[in-house]
């Protein structure tokens, strides 16, 4: 806080953060049930005494309640009169005593009182409240157009300000007052209230691609000192993507529950490092025209939660990136591999050549190239060594077959299927190795 300018001030700001109160916990010793003073653990060993237990308990409760009203020494203050007394909660709530921990995504709400501690009335008070961060300064309240006419001696003027916390780090609530004091002197009072905004949770993501499907795993960790009840962890896919959350198989009683349709049970992430994992299945619906070289934005997560007493929070992650797209002029895909491949028997491999550009390409030649090891290939072309393909139109494709033959048993690799553009004299990257199983007749 700062002192004012121009000597002592008649006014002063007092700030209290408005948030949910906390429970008052009494540091009380161990309480006893009144019946424990009358009966022991072995009462059930005697069938006759056990039958008299309800009457004994009733008598003990009556005498304890009677002693409560007449005994001024409070000798019964250590008796457990109700089961809820054992948790140490007195039923009282405590208002915030300090700003406390303030987290990103919450709404900072503050009750501000400007007090006149002098013996004179102050007039024409212009009050401003601003939130200053490392990046910006936001105006929360300004009475310039309608100043407060006066605050009597010993009086006060109260107001409430709110601010959605969207930045981490140091924040300063700046409260200023411009007023006329009792001597008619114009004075300016600034006061500063500083606090730090912390991150309530961290989000770690992993992206894996299996064939044409992308899987996104999001791990959310709770860094606060209270439990977080996650109302929503929703993935908003980018353009040309769709997303579906994957969950474990649910119990049949949950599937048939009618209440489950109207009430979505929040997911609890415990305080001080509790974690929960979410898994999403993403599919791309973009065509070749929509692909952007070097970029693969998948989308972002929208996260909302509530704390123990229902205070809401909301965060949005930055864009989550997948594997960068490397744009290729042509793509060679395997369409079909025979289910049974016999030793030294010809078989046909079904392939597709796709033109990923906006112009016509070709003609092409396809062959099996030799690798650097110069080892004898276990799978070779049967017949013509080169397959000739016609020109392929822009964003078009053509299907063709390669006749091959395997010369050894077991798991073998088809390597070095290479495409050559005869017009532009350009050789493209070979098709990734393809494994097959060769069996006897």
TrEMBL record:
Family that this chain belongs to:
Belongs to the TRAPPC13 family.
Q: What is this protein called?
A: Trafficking protein particle complex subunit 13
Read off the Pfam families from this record. TRAPPC13_C, TRAPPC13_M, TRAPPC13_N
Trafficking protein particle complex subunit 13 middle domain location is 201-320
Q: Any stretches that span the bilayer, and where are they? A: none
- Chain ranges of the Trafficking protein particle complex subunit 13 C-terminal domain: 338-429
A GO cellular-component term linked to this record = TRAPPIII protein complex
Every Trafficking protein particle complex subunit 13 N-terminal domain range = 9-197
Among InterPro entries, the record links this protein to: TRAPPC13 (IPR010378), TRAPPC13_C (IPR055428), TRAPPC13_M (IPR055429), TRAPPC13_N (IPR055427)
């Amino acid at each position: 806080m700062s002192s004012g300018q121009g000597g002592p001030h008649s006014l002063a700001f007092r700030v209290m953060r408005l948030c949910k109160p906390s429970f008052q916990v009494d540091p009380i010793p161990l309480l006893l049930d009144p019946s424990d003073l009358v009966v022991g653990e072995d009462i059930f060993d005697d069938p006759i005494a056990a039958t008299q237990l309800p009457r004994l308990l009733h008598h003990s409760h009556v005498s304890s309640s009677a002693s409560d009203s007449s005994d001024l020494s409070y000798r019964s203050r250590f008796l457990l009169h109700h089961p809820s007394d054992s948790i140490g909660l007195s039923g009282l709530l405590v208002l915030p005593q300090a700003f406390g921990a303030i987290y990103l995504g919450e709404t900072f709400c503050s009750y501000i009182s400007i007090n006149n501690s002098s013996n004179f009335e102050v007039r024409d008070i212009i009050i401003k409240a601003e939130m200053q961060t490392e990046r910006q300064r936001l105006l929360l309240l300004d009475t310039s157009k309608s100043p407060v006419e006066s605050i009597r001696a010993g009086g006060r003027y109260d107001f409430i300000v709110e601010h959605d916390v969207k930045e981490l780090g140091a924040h300063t609530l700046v409260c200023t007052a411009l007023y006329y004091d009792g001597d008619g002197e114009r004075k300016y009072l600034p006061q500063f209230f500083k606090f730090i905004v912390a991150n309530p949770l961290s989000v770690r993501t992993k992206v894996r691609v299996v064939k044409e499907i992308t899987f996104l795993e999001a791990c959310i960790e709770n860094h606060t000192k209270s439990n977080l009840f996650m109302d929503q962890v929703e993935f908003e896919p980018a353009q040309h993507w769709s997303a579906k959350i994957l969950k474990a198989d649910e119990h049949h009683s949950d599937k048939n529950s009618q209440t489950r349709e109207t009430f979505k049970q929040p997911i609890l992430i415990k305080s001080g490092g509790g974690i929960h994992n979410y898994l999403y299945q993403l599919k791309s619906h973009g065509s070749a025209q929509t692909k952007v070289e070097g970029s693969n934005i998948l989308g972002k997560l929208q996260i909302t939660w509530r704390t123990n007493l229902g205070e809401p929070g909301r965060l949005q992650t930055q864009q989550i990136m997948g594997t960068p797209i490397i744009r290729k002029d042509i793509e060679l895909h395997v369409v079909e591999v025979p289910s049974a491949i016999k030793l030294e028997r010809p078989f046909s491999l079904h392939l597709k050549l796709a033109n990923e550009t906006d112009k016509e390409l070709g003609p092409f030649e396809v062959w099996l190239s030799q690798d650097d090891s110069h080892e004898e290939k276990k799978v070779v072309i049967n017949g013509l060594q080169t397959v000739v393909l016609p020109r392929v139109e822009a964003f078009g494709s053509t299907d063709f077959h390669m006749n091959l033959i395997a010369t050894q048993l077991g798991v073998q690799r088809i390597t070095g299927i290479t495409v050559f553009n005869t017009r532009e004299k350009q050789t493209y990257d070979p098709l990734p190795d393809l494994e097959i199983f060769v069996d006897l007749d």
